[in-house]
């Protein structure tokens, strides 16, 4: 296999270097993507811990052992990463084109950056979940980093879950960002309205043909690993959609 930079003229950056330049461009302002998410996550965890301690002190021996086992607070980061993708792309797109980076190179480099972020945050959340497990829920039976009773799942499965879900929301963000950069507010509002109508229409259709039972069977009949893997085709579709929309966007 030929190296990415081998066919480039002397002094001209190869594709790999240009993609990495896009990654570096995203890190010039690390606050949005690398600093703020961990700070907010730890802040939310601290608030949850304070509430657990307060309730434990007030309830005493009457507190059920699994009272704090079904916390979903950590999942806020999924939605935030979608917003992060929108902010990151809207802030850097015009600068990337000014660096003579093509839209394809910009999108591939941005996708690489989002994949790296997914690995970083999935690893961090899994490590905190492991510590949480070792300390029996931080000494209070509270499970923040293993949401909704998933503390009994393997660390590998939880890492995979965080990774594929983060990746999915990042690429959802690329679609919204591309729509914003191409059609601004009107395009974004039209897209949100269309999605809402489509979801309501789908719910009506499932009700009309009596398929809600089949939907329930799909979720109960598949393993957690299988359900998580089913997100990958959707992620791929949103990635392609984001690129297709970005191709005609102007700074």
Tags for this model:
single chain; 251 residues; mainly alpha; 9 helices; 0% strand; disordered N terminus
Oligomeric form of this entry?
A: single chain
Major sheet summary line: none
Unreliable spans: 1-8
The value of Rg in angstroms is: 21 Å
Structural class by sheet pairing and helices: mainly alpha
**Tally of alpha and pi helices:** 9
Fraction of helical residues: over 70%
Query: Outline, from the CA principal axes?
Result: globular
| pLDDT averaged over residues | 91
Between the first and last Cα atoms, what is the distance in angstroms?
Answer: 35 Å
> Element order, helices and strands?
HHHHHHHHH
Instruction: Supply the number of structural domains.
Output: 1
Secondary structure: number of strands:
0
In terms of DSSP E residues, the strand content is: under 5%
């Amino acid at each position: 296999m030929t190296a990415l930079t081998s066919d480039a003229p002397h002094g001209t950056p190869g594709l790999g270097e240009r993609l990495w330049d896009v990654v570096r461009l995203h890190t010039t302002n690390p606050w949005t993507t690398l600093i703020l998410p961990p700070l907010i996550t730890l802040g939310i965890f601290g608030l949850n811990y304070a509430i657990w301690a307060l309730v434990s002190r007030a309830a005493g021996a009457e507190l059920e052992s699994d009272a704090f086992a079904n916390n979903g607070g950590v999942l806020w980061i999924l939605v935030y990463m979608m917003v992060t993708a929108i902010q990151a792309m809207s802030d850097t797109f015009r600068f990337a084109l000014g660096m003579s980076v093509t839209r394809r190179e910009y999108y591939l480099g941005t996708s690489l950056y989002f994949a790296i972020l997914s690995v970083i945050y999935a690893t961090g959340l899994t490590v905190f979940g492991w510590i949480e497990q070792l300390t029996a829920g931080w000494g209070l039976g509270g499970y923040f980093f293993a949401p909704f009773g998933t503390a009994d799942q393997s660390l590998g499965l939880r890492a995979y879950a965080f990774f594929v879900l983060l990746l999915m929301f990042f690429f959802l963000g690329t679609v919204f960002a591309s729509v914003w950069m191409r059609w601004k507010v009107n395009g974004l509002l039209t897209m949100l309205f269309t999605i809402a109508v489509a979801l309501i229409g789908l719910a009506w259709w499932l009700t009309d043909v009596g398929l809600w039972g089949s939907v329930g069977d799909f979720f109960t009949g598949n393993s957690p690993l299988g359900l998580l893997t089913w997100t990958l085709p959707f992620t791929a579709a949103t990635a392609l959609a984001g690129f297709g929309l970005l191709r005609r966007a102007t700074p």
